[in-house]
Amino acid sequence: MKHNQVTINEVAKKAKVSPATVSRFLNNPLSVKEKNRKKIEETIKELNYKPSLYARRLAGGKSDIYGLIIPGYEGLFHSYYALEIIRGVGFVLERLNIDLYLHIWWQKDTFNSSLVDGVIFADIIGNEAQLERIKKEGIPLVVLNKKVEDVSYVAIDNFLGGYKATEFLIKHGHRRIAHISGDLKVECAQERLEGYKLALKKYDLKIKKEYIKIANFSPLQAQKASEELISLKEPPTAIFVASDEMAVEVLFFLQRKGINIPQEISIIGYDDNPLCNYSIIPLTTVKQPINKMASLGVRVLKNLVGGRKGEKIVLSPHLVIRESVSFV
Q1: With the C-alpha atoms ordered 298, 301, 303, 305, is the resulting torsion angle positive or negative?
Q2: Whether 217 and 275 share a structural domain
Q3: CATH of the domain at 9
Q4: I need a surface site. Which of 23, 65, 157, 258 has the fewest CB within 10 A?
Q5: pLDDT per position as a tens digit, 127-145
């Protein structure tokens, strides 16, 4: 008999117990007497019975599956951030014997929350309605990389990261500092830009619109932005770039144009992507603890699934100093 044709009633009949006893066994084996427990275990193995996830959830049990929702965006499958989130979440779940249900949101909400005990959002980028829907369904959830009201989250202080990067350049004598930002629909990109602006204000430096370019985390758009910056009457002596992927592209582009890095233009990135060590000039960057954020997200979700209180955690980034920034 094929396992997908076996029902809980057939297991109960063969084991000579009630369907309710089998249901209790599936949700909490220790709640069933040892004699009946052994009979049910043997019958399940014999019939190769696989309980329906839907049935287990309806019975109040757990599926031991957590969902991870990643908003789709340009370059997702080459994204250091996305890969680190999947790696971090997946590693912790493996140790907990919890399966991962990975879902990529492409402008359409098809996520089946009945399959999971809880959900981790890798970020919220245009899928606010999906978040609200799952919240209304009463599914425990945690958001990463974004501070959301009335929801547990584990975020990174991107404002502080943007401030530290810009202040580092200022302390190296730079006064004409440009910023190539990420997608400003995304909270982390907004915060990095605001940190950049505050550092300039604190050190009495003018915020120039022509020094701020929006590149949406796209290396190609970052290349175009850097071309526009070096074409200015007064080009910047330093550029703070909102991701390492974009920063490395900027670095290569400027070198192809015959501009010496960091003697003529200093560059600082964001993430501490392994790419930093493999570019022509090792890249100074802001390291954000992505893996730690992912691990903590799983811990917070597990607590929520277990009936404990949620948490709001903000982690601090720090500078990793390499060779792409010089004094002027």
Answers
A1: negative
A2: yes
A3: 1.10.260.40
A4: 258
A5: 999 999 999 989 999 999 9
